[in-house]
Every structure is written in structure tokens, then in C-alpha cells.
Amino acid sequence: xxxxxxxxxLEEHLALARDASSGRSSxxxxxxxARTLRQTLIVLTGGQRLDEHENPGExxxxxxxxxxxxxxxxxxxxxxxxxxxxxxxxxxxxxxLEDSAVLLTVAKL
Length: 109
Description:
Elements: H1 6-19, E1 24-31, E2 37-44, E3 49-53, E4 58-65, E5 68-72, E6 75-79, E7 84-86, E8 92-96, E9 100-107
Antiparallel strand pairs: 1-2, 2-9, 3-8, 4-7, 4-9, 5-6, 5-8
């Protein structure tokens, strides 16, 4: 069995995001192009965002740290640590309201 600490990985990528001009860092935790399931840790410093993009498939977003805002069309929802968001099947964007880390889980069909 493989084991990893999301907390340690989050801290590592938060430091990378703070040093990056983009204010973000990510790491594929599980899966990849050859698998159906993919989990990616995404870290954004406060005020940074992932601009509007298409839904990659069935997807959820779990907030691990900070506060984020998920927007789609005319709707928006703010989420806190422990919240799980179902990503809508539509173009959407993600904004970090403060330094934040999320776990994106996608099942590509």
C-alpha cells in the first residue's frame, strides 16, 4: 500500500506557490493520463485564481486549507476547509480568497 501525507505535501506546495510568480503550485497525487481517476493537489496564494475553464469530467473539489470561491455562470459558492464541492458540468473558475489548498478529484470517462 502506498501512503503519503497530504499535510506535508500541502506545506511543500504552499512554499512553492509563495515563491512562484503565478502564485500557484500543483501536484498529481494519484492517477494520470492512463487512469480514469485522477487526484491533484492545487495550491493558490490569496487572490490568485484559475480562470474559467471547461469541466474535465465528473469532478469534486475538497478544501483542505483556506477559503475558495467556485464560480460557474451566474452562481458562486464560497467554501472552507472540510467542504466538498461538486464541480458543475459547465465552464467554471476557482479563486483563492486567502492562501488555499484543494484536492481536485476527476473521473475521466
